[in-house]
UniProtKB/TrEMBL annotation:
PANTHER family: FUMARYLACETOACETATE HYDROLASE DOMAIN-CONTAINING PROTEIN 2A (PTHR42796:SF4), FUMARYLACETOACETATE HYDROLASE DOMAIN-CONTAINING PROTEIN 2A-RELATED (PTHR42796). It holds the Pfam family FAA_hydrolase. This is Fumarylacetoacetate hydrolase. Residues 67-258 form the Fumarylacetoacetase-like C-terminal domain. The keyword Magnesium does not apply. It comes from the Bacteria. One of its GO terms (molecular function) is hydrolase activity. It comes from Cohaesibacter celericrescens. InterPro entries: FAH (IPR051121), Fumarylacetoacetase-like_C (IPR011234), Fumarylacetoacetase_C_sf (IPR036663), Rv2993c-like_N (IPR018833). Belongs to the FAH family. Keywords: Hydrolase, Metal-binding. The keyword S-adenosyl-L-methionine does not apply.
Amino acid sequence: MCFAASSFASAADKYLRFEQGGDTHYGILNGAMIDILAGGLFPMSEKSGRQVALNSVSILPPTQASKVFAVGMNFASHISSQSDAPPPLFLKLPTSLIGHQAPILLPKDATNVHFEGELVLVIGKTAKNVSIEEAPDYIFGVTAGNDLTERSWQGSDLQWMRSKAADGFGPVGPVIATGVDYNNLLLTTRLNGEIVQQENTKNMIHKPSKVLSYLSRYFTLLPGDLIFMGTPGRTQALDNGDVVSVEIDAVGLISNEIQR
């Protein structure tokens, strides 16, 4: 299994949520092992003293998000928006989230589904009316995500709900990386092993602090909530059996297979 600055945790820690034997746990990645936490992440719990092998567990989405926000048109290489305007935003649903190596089970009428590799912010504490300057204090860490999008539905429906938030349309994880400079990370998307998107997050039009601050004017952000930060470059339709991998340097890699 491949895995490639926060005030909440030690620098460079990588946290994950996993299932083994019907039980769900949180842990810290430690090489090929996971140090199991006694409880959850929010608030942070102590290590339990127990370990489990990484290859013996099923990786889950790294948090149980109450809300999943997403930024559109955030890279000029994809679709550009005005930097001095509010960030273009939409919602995904918590039920759209799946973990590393979980199959993407497409609805039968989803015939034009595209990948969108993205950086994803993880909220660490309750945020309301937060300034841009204060915003980094509310970001626990970051993870990798794939904002799958059914382009035909996106163009025909009243809202992007079905095209962006259908079950399985939000692969995210496998770990939350803390202590990384999320404003300067290389993001790479591969389709069946071939690079199809690659760009540095420094080219985001709307930076994480601006997005978090703006959202907090209107919504109470809770620990574990997620913000997909937009995709670079071009996208293309996926076929049955395609494997999409999204890798972010210093963070990790999430990979999932399309199934019909």
